[in-house]
Design brief:
Layout: E1 3-4, H1 9-12, E2 17-20, H2 22-35, E3 39-43, H3 50-58, E4 63-66, H4 69-78, E5 83-86, H5 93-103, E6 107-110, H6 113-122, E7 130-134, E8 142-144, H7 157-167, E9 170-174, E10 179-181, H8 185-201, E11 207-209, H9 226-238, E12 249-252, H10 256-259, E13 263-273, E14 276-279, H11 288-292, E15 299-302, E16 311-317, E17 326-334, E18 342-345, E19 367-370
Parallel strand pairs: 1-19, 2-19, 3-4, 3-12, 4-5, 5-6, 6-7, 7-9, 9-11, 11-12, 14-16
Antiparallel strand pairs: 2-13, 8-10, 13-14, 13-18, 15-18, 16-17
Helix pairs in contact: 4-5, 7-8, 8-9
The protein binds pyridoxal-5'-phosphate.
């Protein structure tokens, strides 16, 4: 577990750092465990920190969606018995072979016949594999679309399902409604498309995986209630009166929703020019989504209070020399803010520190503390 934070550290701290709130993570895990009627696979890509994986395991999440061989190794090192779902639809031959042979991975996603063939060849035509067919479905309610790169079209899906049924142990369907999905209807639409495909194929489905996409509160996004998502999914799945869904196991792969709120990043102001704050993290560090995607995050002063000043909108610039290193926000902070102040950027647990580069010599390492 990370070291306990003490405000006296701030005097010594020069680089951006993180605060981890374990209780917030535990609360989110509880919400998923109590409200989702299937099995939760945590999407490791959102945040692969060991202290997060350990809490997930302790709280009953023992299955993981991974994208690479390194993520397989990471999870197996922490928990040799964890169940791995290798859900990247396009994998290297080497990662397929090693995941199967050395790490006992039996669940793989695909979205083409060529990828199926690769899996067959690299596993010596193993008969103990579960193959999950990734469908292309609309991502129109999501901040980040995941529909362009992956997914098999409705027209081609039934044939692939039949092939999987014939050649492998178990058959799965999976999809992703896109990350930060702002309308639970997206899941209903995706389930309807899946139902049609399954019916046409006549294949009995062993796994039905509704992916990730559950949203998090960011300023500028409309309010939402996670219960609406769970109700929509649970009701719809439980009421599926379709023989092809008999004994089907329901799965989900949340990433962002599980870990976003449990971490804040603390950044320092290097300079203020009117409403521009030059801070010590940016798009090449943890703020990729704030820059490229224009994500806003809740912010507040860290380490000092100001109850008197008016709140003003600020934009952030990162520490590199690239002028694209810019986060538009707007981030509302007290007008007294100036060089040397620290800012807590909240909801920074997902897709943040994993995206960092070493550009311009920055972002070598982030210290993480708990509170
Ligand atoms: C295959 C797959 N599963 C799950 C996730 C996690 O999605 P989210 O963070 O939106 O919950 C992603 C995100 O890219 C993904 O590609």
């Amino acid at each position: 577990m990370p070291l306990k934070f003490n405000y006296s550290f701030i005097k010594r701290q020069q680089e951006p750092f993180y605060i981890f709130y374990p209780e917030r993570l535990k609360k989110k895990i509880r919400i998923f465990n109590e409200n989702f009627s299937g099995e939760v696979l945590y999407a490791v890509k959102a945040n692969p920190s060991k202290f997060i994986i350990e809490i997930l395991l302790k709280k009953g999440i023992n299955s993981f969606d991974v994208a690479s061989l390194n993520e397989v190794k990471l999870i197996k090192k922490i928990s040799p018995n964890a169940k791995i779902f290798f859900m990247n639809p396009v994998k290297s031959r080497n990662s397929i072979k090693k995941a199967y042979k050395n790490y006992n991975v039996r669940n793989f996603a695909i979205d083409s016949l060529d990828e199926i063939k690769k899996i067959q060849e690299e596993t010596n035509f193993a008969k103990d594999l579960n193959i999950h067919l990734r469908l292309a479905i609309p991502n129109k309610f999501s901040a980040i679309s995941l529909s362009n790169k992956f997914g098999v079209k409705e027209i081609n899906a039934p044939q692939l399902l039949e092939y999987i049924k014939k050649e492998f142990f178990k058959v799965g369907i999976c999809f992703h409604v896109g990350s930060q999905c702002m309308n639970p209807i997206a899941y209903k639409i995706a389930i309807e498309i899946s139902k049609k495909i399954i019916k046409r194929s006549g294949v009995k489905i062993n796994f039905f995986n509704i992916g990730g996409g559950f949203p998090v509160f960011y300023p500028g996004y409309k309010d939402f209630c996670l219960d609406d998502y769970f109700n929509q999914i649970n009701d719809y799945i439980l009421n599926l009166d379709d023989d092809n869904f008999l004994n089907t196991k329901l799965l989900a792969e949340p990433g962002r929703s599980i870990v976003s709120e449990c971490m804040s990043m603390i950044v320092k102001v290097n300079l203020r020019k009117k409403n521009k704050l030059y801070i010590n993290d940016g798009i090449y560090g943890s703020l990729n989504n704030a820059g490229y995607l224009g994500f806003n995050y809740p912010v507040k002063l860290f380490g000092r209070e100001d109850k008197k000043s008016k709140f003003e909108p600020f934009i952030f610039y990162g520490p590199t020399c690239d002028s694209r290193d810019f986060m538009p926000g707007p981030f509302y902070l007290p007008d007294s803010i100036n060089e040397g102040d620290w800012i807590e950027i909240e909801h920074m647990g997902a897709y943040t520190m994993t995206m960092k580069t070493k550009f311009n010599g920055f972002f070598e390492k982030y210290n993480v503390f708990t509170i």
